[in-house]
Structure formats: structure tokens, C-alpha cells
């Protein structure tokens, strides 16, 4: 009888405890549903495409036409950078300059450092003529990665030509369109000095904050 009583008592306590938990959870859920109202945002409402993200059907027709600038290169007003060393935006029409390839790049006709000052264009900075990737060699069955003599500094190899890892200008630089944003942008960039709005000094500051492991 004692064993039965003890067993019955244990089972009863467990049942009561679990029932209590269920009730508490139910109450908590009820309270949360009363206090917090969650609004469901459909995939079709997340962007200008206004279509399901699982299909490309009708997407091209759904995206509104963007009013891109039609100013000819050399006649447009430069756009201030968003923050220090941010990639500058393209202020002129690029319709006849695309696509950009390794063997055909009309951007270089005006933006190479030796040409840009004479035509009033922004010069391609030194970083674009530099390879920042450490060299890797295969030695004695292992891959050996180049280490800079100055501990903690970024490895860099200055080249006499444009680094081909940066040949595609539009991977960072893009033309701007006049459009109503879906979300208001209140971001305000900070600059160390006024020259930062129109030029880059990244080559001189790239090692700032770099700490050797």
C-alpha cells in the first residue's frame, strides 16, 4: 500500500504541475496576444518589385521606371560621397558605356589619373592600382601565405596598372535615379575634413585600427 500511495502521489504531483504550466502558458499567450499585435508583411510588399520572391514572372513589368540622369559625362554635377572614402556615385548617363569588361571599359577614358584633371573628372584612386591580396605559394605540400614584414599591416602590392580585381566599376559605383524611397533615409555621413566629400585618402588610412593577431 505504501508503494502504491507513494507512486500515486508522485503521479498526481506531476499531473498537477504540468497542468499548472499549461495554464500559465495559455495565460501568457493570451496576455501577449492582447498586448502585442503583429502585422504580417507579405513578400510582395518588401520592395519595388511588388511580386512574389519565389518567381520572376512579371517582375520586369512590376518595377517602376526609374528616372536616371541623362546628363552627358563631363556636364553633370558631382555627387558628394555618403561618408569618408565611400565609393562615389555616378552623376551622368552610362547607357552607352555598358557592359564593362576587362577589354572594354569606357570609364578609363576620363577617370585615369593622368587624364581626369584635364577633363574635370574624379581620378581613380591609388587603391585601384594596388593588389591587397597576399600571395599564396604551394611549398612542401602546404600552402604558404605571404606575411608582411610590418606586423599587423595590410599586405599590398602597388601596380603600374589598374588592378584587374577592380575592372568592373559598377560593382561599387552606380548611377542615381530620382525616385520616392520606400523607407526614409535619415543617415548623415561624417567627414574628417571637407575634402572627404569629393576625394579618397583610403590608401593613407587603410591600416588605421588594424591590430596584429
Task: Using brief descriptors, characterize the structure shown.
213 residues, alpha+beta, two-stranded antiparallel ribbon
Report on the architecture of this protein.
There is one protein chain. With 213 residues, the protein is of the alpha+beta class. It contains five helices and six strands, in the order H-H-E-H-H-E-E-E-E-E-H. A two-stranded antiparallel sheet has the order 1-6. Strands 2-5 form a two-stranded antiparallel sheet. Strand 3 and strand 4 form a beta hairpin. The longest helix is centred in the first third of the chain and has 34 residues.
Provide a brief overview of the structure.
With 213 residues, the protein is α+β, with helices and mostly antiparallel strands. Helix content is 23%, strand content 8%.
Shape: extended
How many strands?
A: 6
Overall SS class: alpha+beta
The secondary-structure element order is HHEHHEEEEEH
Strand content: 5-15%
Give the terminus-to-terminus CA distance.
70 Å
What is the average per-residue confidence, as pLDDT, rounded to a whole number? 79
Strand order of the biggest β-sheet: 1-6
Taking Cα atoms only, what radius of gyration do you get, to the nearest Å? 30 Å
Quaternary structure annotation = single chain
Poorly predicted regions: 1-28
What share of the residues lie within helices? 10-25%
Number of helices: 5
Mind summarizing the main beta sheet?
2 strands, antiparallel
Amino acid at each position: 500500500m505504501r508503494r502504491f500511495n507513494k507512486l500515486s502521489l508522485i503521479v498526481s504531483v506531476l499531473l498537477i504541475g504540468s497542468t499548472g504550466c499549461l495554464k500559465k502558458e495559455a495565460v501568457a499567450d493570451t496576455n501577449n496576444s492582447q498586448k502585442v499585435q503583429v502585422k504580417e508583411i507579405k513578400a510582395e510588399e518588401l520592395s519595388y518589385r511588388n511580386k512574389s520572391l519565389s518567381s520572376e514572372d512579371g517582375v520586369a513589368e512590376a518595377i517602376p521606371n526609374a528616372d536616371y540622369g541623362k546628363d552627358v559625362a563631363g556636364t553633370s554635377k558631382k555627387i558628394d560621397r555618403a561618408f569618408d572614402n565611400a565609393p562615389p556615385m555616378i552623376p551622368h548617363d552610362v547607357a552607352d558605356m555598358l557592359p564593362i569588361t576587362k577589354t572594354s571599359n569606357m570609364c578609363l577614358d576620363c577617370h585615369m589619373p593622368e587624364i581626369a584633371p584635364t577633363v574635370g573628372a574624379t581620378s581613380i584612386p591609388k587603391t585601384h592600382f594596388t593588389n591587397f591580396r597576399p600571395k599564396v605559394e604551394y611549398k612542401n605540400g602546404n600552402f604558404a601565405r605571404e606575411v608582411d614584414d610590418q606586423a599587423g599591416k595590410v599586405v599590398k602590392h602597388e601596380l603600374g596598372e589598374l588592378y584587374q580585381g577592380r575592372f568592373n566599376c559598377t560593382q561599387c559605383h552606380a548611377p542615381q535615379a530620382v525616385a520616392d524611397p520606400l523607407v526614409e533615409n535619415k543617415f548623415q555621413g561624417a567627414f574628417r575634413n571637407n575634402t572627404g566629400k569629393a576625394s579618397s585618402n583610403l590608401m593613407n588610412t587603410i591600416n588605421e585600427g588594424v591590430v596584429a593577431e
